[in-house]
């Protein structure tokens, strides 16, 4: 069999070999487009990353400095390993339970939930069960998960743009004022600028000609918008400079008891595991093959083990539980990321901030204009949702839309996934010829055949 065949036909042994064989640094980090596009793509998933890490820092007292350092290392390693702008994002279900449920999860319980989820993903990866699941899942169901996640991001983005947010309570406040350093006018201006600079997300893989009019190949649009937001942090509250302390956060082990693992597993890991399997592994692999058709398809085994190892290392030191996410990949691709260099730039920035400012950097993020984060998240969500545009029949679209609708209204990707699978099976059952299956011969009336009347 050709070694370049897709992971859907790859044995677990080959998957492990592909996971352990790193591409050369030159191949993984070689720019696939312009430097400005790769830099712009580096901030493409921050619309998801910043709100969640900020909320965990404010509510659960997560150490931001430790999280920045570890996620920087994750970005660097996965950029080298996969050679694409593979995102490193928070585990959203764990974060949602930690900050919204009562009582709030403690740091040991959050870390125990991350380790539990990671252990399940590694088990699914090394046993080949993840590969089997990837082969068996119908494409319309995967597209339904992607569509629901993309629309969910877009809906959250609109809330960020229209309303003031209190991340410590995960709630929207009053309507955002038109004027001000975090006003609606600023967010709308950023949205119009990104739409003008990047259009509908046209390809920027090709080297631009001198007469090329596609500004997204020359202007790091998302990076400029993010840097504007960072500048506004200090303008909105100049006193934050006085509260910044230099130096990294002290590295220490998190003490977790058996009770922490029980609470973390049952309250946070159980809702996170289906989302990680569907969106962090399967949807990521499928989306990567859509966005990078000229590359070898990612192995679900390697992605699953990657998510597991990140958390089995970082969670013991208090780093936020993370995963790869289809939304983050879509966002980084949307703004120009095409290679591992994109996330390597992000890794360098995170590492510098984590080592220089440590946990005090949370004071800066607390002043970041939420409207600008909403704009970045909106483009990421739309890009992920657009992956579902390849449905070729009404039947496939029906399954996809049922899966997406149930996921959105039920707030559960696992519930939507289950309904999508059920509808897919029912539609297949309608096509079964039950008469032939049980051996009933249908009487036909017509002309004689071979001198006999048709029976």
Describe this structure in words.
- With 455 residues, the protein is mainly α.
- The protein is 62% helix and 3% strand.
- The protein is built from 20 helices and 4 strands.
- It has helices spanning 12-20, 25-29, 35-42, 46-59, 64-82, 92-100, 107-126, 129-136, 139-162, 184-198, 221-236, 258-291, 300-314, 326-334, 340-357, 362-365, 370-385, 394-410, 413-429, 434-437; strands at 89-90, 163-166, 171-175, 322-323.
- Strands 1-4 form a two-stranded antiparallel sheet. The chain has a two-stranded antiparallel ribbon with strand order 2-3.
- Strand 2 (163-166) and strand 3 form a beta hairpin.
- Helix 3 (35-42) crosses helix 11.
- The longest helix is centred in the middle third of the chain and has 34 residues, at 258-291.
- The model is unreliable at 1-22 and 204-216 (pLDDT under 50).
Average of per-residue pLDDT values: 86
Q: What strand order characterises the main sheet?
A: 1-4
User: Approximately what portion of the residues adopt beta-strand conformation?
Assistant: under 5%
Gyration radius, in Å: 24 Å
Mass-distribution shape? globular
Task: Give the biggest beta sheet.
Answer: 2 strands, antiparallel
Number of helices: 20
The chain-level structural class is: mainly alpha
Distance between the termini: 47 Å
Q: How many beta strands in the DSSP annotation?
A: 4
Q: Low-confidence parts lasting 5 or more residues at pLDDT below 50? A: 1-22, 204-216
Helix-strand topology string: HHHHHEHHHHEEHHHHEHHHHHHH
Share in helix = 55-70%
